[in-house]
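Course exercise 7: structure representation. Students receive a sequence record and must write out the corresponding structure in token form. The form below is the worked example handed out in class, using Molybdenum cofactor biosynthesis protein B (173 residues). Read each field label carefully; the graders check that inputs and outputs are placed in the correct fields and that the protein name is recorded exactly as given.

STUDENT ID: A-19
EXERCISE PROTEIN: Molybdenum cofactor biosynthesis protein B
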Amino acid sequence: MSEPMVPLNIAVLTVSDTRTEETDRSGQALVERLTSAGHTLAEKRIVPDDVYRIRAVVANWIAEADVQVVITTGGTGFTGRDSTPEAISVLLDKRIEGFGERFRQLSGEEIGSSTIQSRCLGGLANATVVFCLPGSTGACRTGWDGILAEQLDSRHKPCNFANLVIPGRGQHG
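STUDENT ANSWER:
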């Protein structure tokens, strides 16, 4: 008999100079997937692609005891204002190198060599796991369906990130 999944509190940040709540399909796709999986939306925000504004929001969420996961979408490419990796990387205590590698592997099956332009990243900061996904809705679906759904499920074996952020567990479980 399987143990019950422990729901996580997940914050979603859309990084965009142009999107609004009405046009933010990527952020909404993440919210729909995380709530359908049984998790709780802690907060959802949209901020312009500005290093300091991105960093401020994510740093505040990392400092909050009730936010266990932060997922960002947008700002991971190579255009002039794409700055999510620069904003987030300095906040991380440990990087999850395999996250970007696995994402690009999955994405490559869908968009070919264009996946090398994704600078998505993941890491751990103050017992909060942080994942930065590209801004396209397809990339958010790929990231959630191919990686995050399992890694944020406390029942996934042999290991998952959920058990690292659930109070009292602090292990892969």
